[in-house]
Amino acid sequence: MPKGIVFNVQKGLYNVYSEGEITACKLRGKLYLKTEKQTNLIVVGDEVEFEKTFNKQGIIVNILERKSKLSRKGAGKNKKHLEQLIASNIDSAILVNSVKNPSYKKNLIDRYIIACKKGNIEPVLCFNKCDLIDSQDIQNDIEFYEKTGIKVFLTSTLNNIGIDLLSDYIKDKISVFTGSSGVGKSSLVNALEKIEVAKTHNVSNSNYKGMHTTTSSQIYMLPNGAMIVDTPGMREFGIFGSTVDEIKEMYEDIEKYSKECKFNSCTHTHEPECAVKEALENGFIDEQRLKNYLKLIQEI
Question: What are the distances in angstroms from CA 276 to CA 31, 162, 248?
Fold first, then answer.
């Protein structure tokens, strides 16, 4: 029975790549029934077994075990309790954030990093559209993430900045490009492949919110052996299945002060003799980072 990689998922059809050709597949009935209890059963990057039928069509009969996955809480009121898979069997996640139009949010970056580590994926931070600012304006953030062990790239598709470095990094890897709408994911894919392979649109001038350009996840193969998963922009990213301890591990700079609080159950909001609040007042902790930490703890 042939095996392949899911290259694209759209409206119940799964394009599976195997031995140099694409087979348009549907799910076998028993598998399809499982989708009623999940937001999505199969995602781009999944390795599957399938049976060929006719005219380059087939039926997926089995999903092989995943070595890694990127997922979030299901989007929509009725799906918040479910896991929504974004991509699987990924080596690294390129977390694309624009430095301007729209500006990046550190709270969202932290959420992606937590999800990557939980899913056994290396998180990589990409500050895109860096031609719009002086890089010194974000140097503190760059240094902070690098100190935590996160690899950081600065890129601009307009001025071809950092594209070669990013290309060298993703060589022979499977990488998912993810982030909010309008940050330039598809433009980066285009620049990396050096041909127009994905639609791009300008960001709305009225509110600087991204316009969705990629409507479904898609794998692109680059000449250097890299495989890129380009994903639709996401306006929200809820962390699925994480524990309080996993959140605290992400915020080691805050947790080291937390151990000095008077009360073990200190919430760092109103309690007396709170070492975290004292560190904040003395400038040892960034106020926005503390707010992000408390918000994530509250969500969990």
Answer: 49, 38, 13
The encoded tokens of residue 75 equal 């989007």
Tell me which CATH homologous superfamily contains domain 69-230.
P-loop containing nucleotide triphosphate hydrolases (3.40.50.300)
Query: pLDDT tens digits for 5-27?
Result: 999 998 789 999 999 999 999 98
Q: What share of the chain is helix, strand, coil (3-state, %, to 5)?
A: 30, 25, 45
- C-beta separation of 150 from 123 below 8 A: yes
Asked if residue 202 has pLDDT above 50, the reply is no
Q: What's the CA gap between 42 and 63, in Å, rounded? A: 8
Distances in Å between the Cα of 239 and the Cα atoms of 80, 124, 207, 228 are 10, 18, 26, 23
- Which of 247, 295, 241, 249 lies closest to 149, judged by CA? 249
Containing 291, the helix (H) or strand (E) segment is helix 287-299
- Burial letters for 68-82: b for 16+ Cβ neighbours within 10 Å, e otherwise? bbbbbbbeeeeeeeb
- Per-residue pLDDT at 196: 45
Whether the model clears a pTM of 0.70, i.e. scores above it, the answer is yes
Domain 3-63 has CATH 2.40.50.140: yes
CA dist 150 → 76, 146, 264 (Å): 31, 5, 30
Class for the domain spanning 244-299:
mainly alpha
Q: Spell out the residues 6+ positions from residue 53 whose beta carbon is closer than 8 angstroms to its own.
A: 59
| C-alpha span between 197 and 70 (Å, rounded) | 23
Q: Residue for token digits 């092989």?
A: 64
Hey, where are the domains in the chain?
3-63, 69-230, 244-299
